[in-house]
Write a structure and sequence with these properties.
CATH topology: TIM Barrel
CATH architecture: Alpha-Beta Barrel
Structural class: alpha/beta
Largest sheet: 8 strands, parallel, barrel
Order of helices and strands: EHEHEHEHEHEHHEHEH
Number of domains: 1
Strand content: 15-25%
CATH class: Alpha Beta
Helix content: 40-55%
Shape: globular
Mean pLDDT: 97
Number of helices: 9
Distance between the termini: 7 Å
Low-confidence stretches: none
Number of strands: 8
């Protein structure tokens, strides 16, 4: 398993400085934000040429909303995601982290055509993902579906829901990622949820129970990591969390803690 960290968590002003520092800390990768990627892509490539560390993933950064009631918002989201998938391929990243929608439902109740708004949303998302899966396959990366907790989205909250969608699409371009913070809220057994998702699991976000650095809360990482190791998971796990002061000292403490478990 490889450790990564989101770019905004690394102290420093320029990306090159952050990459050098993350490499010195002992990380294998850095997760970059998708916002403004078109303008940043050359800067990122240049920064990568000076270090051994790689880009693990692109985190969101697309406009619109895949489950908006507005067609233009949905069209823009699909268009931007397709472009980000291309950038992910250029950076040799795993893929683009994708949350179908934040907050509550935006679509109308179309009963009896659909039994619920959720069923309508799922049908719409499947259509969009089939289009995006072709782009992802063509460039060799993944759309990474991320379940969030119930306070941030109503739609995908558990790994099994994301797995069902990936399974039905049946494309290597559509995969699943897991976030320990959200799983701490939504999954009854984190280790078992990971075990059942292993076939489609391509990325992981790490945060403790309080959304601080791993090792600064009460989440059991040991048992889930054992499941991941037994399942042959050898991909990135990215820190997405709050980093308390002194930041550099605490990042080092957390990575040492994680390495001891890995």
């Amino acid at each position: 398993m490889k450790l990564s960290i989101q770019e905004n968590l690394v102290p420093g002003l320029k990306l090159e400085e952050k990459l050098i520092k993350a490499e010195r800390f002992g990380f294998d990768g850095v997760e970059v934000w998708g916002h403004g990627m078109r303008e940043r892509i050359e800067e990122i490539k240049q920064a990568l040429s000076t270090v051994k560390i790689r880009i693990s993933t692109i985190c969101s950064g697309y406009r619109g909303d895949l489950l908006s009631a507005n067609w233009e918002e949905r069209r823009i989201a699909v268009q931007d995601l397709g472009e980000l998938l291309g950038f992910a391929a250029q950076l040799e990243a795993t893929g683009v982290i994708t949350v179908p929608t934040f907050g509550g439902p935006k679509l109308p109740d179309l009963r009896p055509l659909y039994s619920s708004v959720w069923e309508l949303e799922r049908a719409l998302l499947m259509t969009e993902l089939r289009e995006l899966s072709k782009v992802a396959e063509d460039v060799g990366v993944h759309v990474l579906l991320e379940p969030l907790n119930r306070y941030e989205t109503h739609f995908l909250c558990r790994l099994e829901q994301a797995v069902c969608i990936a399974e039905e699409i049946g494309s290597p371009g559509i995969a699943v990622m897991a976030d320990f913070f959200h799983m701490n809220i939504e999954e009854s057994d984190i280790a078992e949820a990971l075990r059942r998702s292993m076939k489609y699991l391509r990325h992981i976000h790490l945060a403790d129970s309080n959304r601080w650095l791993p090792g600064f809360g009460h989440t059991d990482f040991r048992t889930p990591f054992k499941v991941l190791k037994e399942g042959g998971y050898n991909r990135y796990m990215t820190l997405e969390c709050y980093v308390p002061e002194p930041k550099e000292e605490n990042i080092l403490k957390s990575i040492q803690y994680l390495r001891s478990l890995i």
